[in-house]
Amino acid sequence: VRLVPYPRPGALADAVDADEWDIGLIGAEPQRAEKIAFTAAYAEIEATYLVPAASPITELAQVDRPGIRIAVTARTAYGLWLERNIHQATLIQTDSLDAALEVFEAEKLEALAGLRPRLLMDVRNLPGSRILEGQFSAVQQAIGTARGNTRAAAFLHEFVEEAKASGLV
To answer: For 132, which DSSP code?
Structure first.
């Protein structure tokens, strides 16, 4: 076994054609599924928004409006979802989670999109900010392999189903 780390999910997804990895742990997402065969999800992670102190935004439906700017990490599963589903607000895409937070703060953006576990950490450092209730999406964390690797895809599918049935995950 050789572990091949990637700095971001998008980089892992890009490397599927380069034969750099055989099995990847990544959010299953329709755009990625064109080249990656995914198992069923073994975990689901909520994606939502953090808004600054005194923001008039109180619910998810208020975010996709003209004049609203959303900081988001590009090519994450939730970022790809936002690209497909945000029609009026403007996405401000960054290369990393930390960069998204920095842009959100520095440019006084109206929302920061992210996974709830990370936003729970960020909200502690931003006095008065709050995380909106609910989720705009949920990342379906799965195991993937190149679409052409049918034997591995079958094995991984069986493995994940067994792991879920046994309570391992």
So the answer is: P
